[in-house]
Cyanobacterial aminoacyl-tRNA synthetase CAAD domain-containing protein (Rhododendron simsii), 176 residues
Amino acid sequence: MASTTSTSLSLSSSPSSTLFDAKAPRQLSAAGSSQCATLPTLPPLPSQSRGVWKTTTYCQKIARNVVAMATGEAPAEVAVAELELPEVVKTIQETWDKVEDKYAVGSLAVAAVVALWGSAGMISAIDRLPLVPGVLELVGIGYTGWFAYRNLIFKPDREALIQKIKCKYNDILGSS
């Protein structure tokens, strides 16, 4: 009896090691059944994934230095050249600076985003209805066919459509 109490005491002193070591032996009670089962631990993080980032960064530095040597510029000048804004962004900034009522334009932009979000929700709700998506698809195919027959097949109709588009374009943006 003394030997069973000493083994259970010695086994009860090692539960802290089972938290850190998954391969610790199972504890057995005096009856021989297991008191708890240990779960396997997760594998360690692969050390290669950390090395990939270092390698990529190192290769980028080498590439910048090669570009600097090839162009005869200092590496700092190459970095500044990479930070230049595209022409489209410059045009947008100039246009924004010309706007007088920025509050109204910002409000319109927010309203457009809210309308887009609301219409996307409405379309997804309609799409969940059983027969409606198929019917709407047939209506779209029918209208596309009718529009093509009426405006695109014959040359006079195409010219009239192009004239209408140009007229609307000039009405919206002004004559140019």
The radius of gyration is 36 Å. Residues 1-18 have pLDDT under 50 and may be disordered. Residues 10 and 148 are 89 Å apart (CA to CA).
